[in-house]
Task: inverse folding
């Protein structure tokens, strides 16, 4: 059974930074593309970033490209999302997702439960 467990959310201050972690189990992590998404209340799910199995190629959404970094450690089955210069508009539930190694445009199959991030001004 695949499990993705996010952590690191909470109440943040505008202008600060966050680092979210996602630990995966039940899959071959080194053969998996990992991604981060978020969903604000009343809105659709928004792609933030993804990283291929080797970590060599990453992709970030234009809306957050200058503020976001994604990284992974295959030995720890963990992927991280670093976001800087937080804004109240970053308030959302942040989700980790996984899909088998393949096309970057392919849909994500596995999802975590999400971690709430609230940014106060």
Result:
């Amino acid at each position: 059974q695949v499990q993705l467990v996010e952590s690191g959310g909470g109440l943040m201050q505008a202008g600060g930074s966050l680092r979210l972690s996602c630990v995966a189990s039940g899959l071959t992590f080194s053969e998996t593309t990992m991604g981060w998404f978020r969903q604000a209340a009343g809105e659709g799910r928004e792609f933030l970033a993804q990283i291929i199995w080797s970590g060599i190629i990453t992709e970030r959404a234009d809306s957050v490209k200058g503020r976001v970094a994604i990284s992974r450690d295959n030995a720890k089955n963990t992927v991280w999302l670093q976001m800087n210069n937080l804004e109240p508009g970053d308030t959302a539930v942040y989700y980790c997702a996984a899909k088998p190694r393949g096309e970057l445009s392919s849909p994500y199959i596995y999802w975590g439960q999400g971690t709430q991030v609230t940014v106060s001004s």
